[in-house]
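STRUCTURE:
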């Protein structure tokens, strides 16, 4: 019988971070469900929890589907950064900086058509959206970096 190969710590960190990225829509949906005020839109005789969950499933599927390319990028970049981290060549948090930069670039790409068609009106919207993207990207980058470093420390013991 063939012996199974153990995953390297950088591979484990990449898989865990991709999983965290795929769980983000679930976390956002649960938080939004928690924060929304109670609704009287539940049909008589039904519990509100299954009703809300059944209404959330299409949004959840779409959110997870939209996160798949980002999860692949996260896994690829985590693997590279973790390898460098483990060889002690570099301890800087480049992943955090990359996530913040990607968060700022995505709104600019989405607004590309508006930038080209209305160049005089677009700059304020682009600047605000890029700043919001920078903050969101920084938050994602911080979470993913802390998770990756924690996994690397835990797997090296």
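SEQUENCE:
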């Amino acid at each position: 019988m063939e012996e199974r190969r153990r995953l390297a710590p950088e591979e484990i960190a990449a898989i865990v971070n991709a999983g965290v990225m795929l769980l983000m829509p679930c976390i956002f949906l649960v938080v939004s469900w928690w924060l929304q005020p109670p609704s009287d839109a539940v049909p008589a005789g039904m519990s509100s929890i299954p009703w809300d969950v059944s209404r959330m499933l299409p949004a959840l599927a779409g959110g997870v589907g939209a996160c798949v390319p980002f999860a692949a990028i996260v896994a690829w970049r985590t693997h590279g950064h973790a390898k460098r981290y483990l060889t002690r060549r570099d301890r800087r948090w480049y992943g955090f900086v990359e996530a913040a930069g990607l968060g700022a670039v995505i709104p600019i790409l989405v607004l590309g058509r508006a930038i080209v068609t209305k160049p005089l009106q677009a700059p304020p919207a682009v600047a605000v959206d890029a700043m919001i993207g920078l903050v969101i990207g920084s938050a994602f980058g911080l979470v993913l970096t802390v998770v990756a470093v924690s996994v690397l420390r835990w797997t090296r013991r």
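REMARK: Residues 9-155 form one domain.
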